[in-house]
Amino acid sequence: MMTDAMTSRLRPVQPGKTTLVAVLDIGSTKICCVIARLTPRAEGKALRGRSHQAEVIGFGYGPSVGVKSGVVTDIEKAEHAIRTVVGMAERAAGLTLESVIVNVTAGRLGSETFSAAVSLDGQEVEKSDIHRVLRAVNERSVRPERSIIHALPIGYAIDGQKGIRDPKGMVGDKLGVDVAVVSSETLAMRNLELVLHRCHLQIEALIATPYASGLATLVDDEAQLGVACIDFGGATTTVSVFNDGHLVYADAIAIGGHHLTLDIARQLSVSVADAERLKTFYGSVLPGQTDERDMIPIQPVGATHDEAPGQVARSVLTRIMRPRIEEILTAIRDRMQATGMMDVCGRRFVMTGGASEMTGLPEVARRTLARNVRNGRPMGIAGLPEMAKGAAFATVAGMLIYPQVCAQEYAEPRGSRRLTGTDGYFARVGNWLKTSF
Fold it and tell me: Which residue spans adopt a coiled-coil conformation according to this UniProt entry (predicted)?
């Protein structure tokens, strides 16, 4: 799969039909597998793009081992961790998985916008013309060292007139298109694929983590007017920009919430587990009025149980955490300004991911980014356990939404393995009938 220019195209869910979907979120601090039943739903006002309601029937969750910043670092440990989590979800759902939708954070995730145009000679735009112009974009964007994860047409133009959503049936001399292409390093993708093959799982499709987080937490009006979604993960922070209802930009930096934990562990000389507890229970990136007086008990590394625990003021914790958060936000702002995306995203940022729930983060983000900021939680998913309803599971929720919107993407038409039952004898006969007559 990874040797081709385009990654495998996920078959969109059929309107009015119920289907099963399995997703696997391989993060740096946690691995999560969800099996859900997608059932048709009535058209809603808040989430107009959703054709189905996701109901979770299998859930597996565990710590991530052998993965760092989305990159596989120990294939044996990663395989064991994935097998454990997938097994939990399979037992809960009462079925065996053959393929899963997997998220991608590794491999220097990035995006570019490519444009191309083809001649129409005054004729009507047909489906073949649209494929022709998209193929021309594909030829320009393919590089051997990078795998394309998404190719999302942003908008079409006929004779220079932009802003056309569907050009089919229109008349002109030249058809143009702008496509947002999200790609990652091929070698990182191959290692991910290798681990899953060792777990006897096929990759049904890949989805970029920032895209999934945006699908889960943004409402339609935000995506239409322009918004950026920042996902604070364990070892990576990803950002996606949506405008006019389309993903137009995605990026990732290799700093996340776990780096805050390591900062606390180093500065206070405590264990990583204790540093995580201090961050979760007492951590804040905004100083409070009583922080100098509030004392926090700490257990230094190597201290025996009969020794009295030390104490530090809560303000010390804030002074350790805030510079790292400002570093992440400044890096995102500078990269977006360099690509012109600070203008495209309008005046709004949405923050999600496990590390986004830190006290005071929205206020610090407003000052650093000079934009309106809100915290985002996954919407429209039923049956998730209570522990999985927070911002840390936004990527998983977005991956369940992805089959409903993947029809917007372009992929090279070719055969590939699909979910159970879709590449069997009857499916092959159906494909033969379609292509032959």
Answer: none
Angle of helix 257-268 versus helix 272-282 axis, rounded to 10: 110
For residue 79, what are the CA distances in angstroms to 5, 74, 105, 224?
27, 9, 18, 40
Class of domain 110-184: alpha beta
d(CA 287, CA 279): 14
Residues 284 and 359: beta-carbon distance below 8 Å: yes
Using 50, 70 and 90 to split pLDDT, how confident is the model at 300?
Answer: confident
In which residue are the tokens 């989305």 written?
Answer: 70
Q: What is the DSSP letter of 90?
A: H
How many angstroms separate the CA atoms of 374 and 309, rounded? Answer: 38
Task: Render pLDDT for 268-293 as a digit per residue (tens, 0 to 9).
Answer: 999 999 999 999 999 999 988 888 88
Cα–Cα distance, 377 to 238 (Å, whole number): 16
Mean pLDDT (the chain) is 86
The span from the CA of 220 to the CA of 222, in Å, is 5
Encoded tokens for 259: 């780096």
* Nearest alpha-carbon partner for 348 in 211, 245, 227, 256: 227
Question: Exposed e or buried b for every residue in 178-206, given b needs 16+ CB within 10 A?
Answer: bbbbbbbbbebbbbbbebbeebebbbbbb
- What is the model's pLDDT at position 47? 60
Write the DSSP string, 103-159.
EE-TTT-EEEEEEEEEE-TTPBP-HHHHHHHHHHHHHHH-BTTEEEEEEEEEEEEET
CB 256 within 8 A of CB 287: no
Give me the CATH code for the 257-317 domain, please.
Answer: 3.30.420.40
Please indicate whether the domains covering 1-109+185-218+379-417 and 110-184 agree at the CATH topology level: no
CATH 1.10.3720.10 fits 1-109+185-218+379-417, yes or no: no
DSSP alpha helices (H): ranges in 175-217? Answer: 186-198, 209-217
Nearest to 29 by CA among 59, 58, 62, 60: 62
- Separation of alpha carbons 64 and 74, rounded Å: 11
The structural domains of the chain, with segments of one domain joined by +, span 1-109+185-218+379-417, 110-184, 257-317
Contacts of 379 (CB under 8 A, 6+ apart): 46, 47, 216, 217, 219, 397
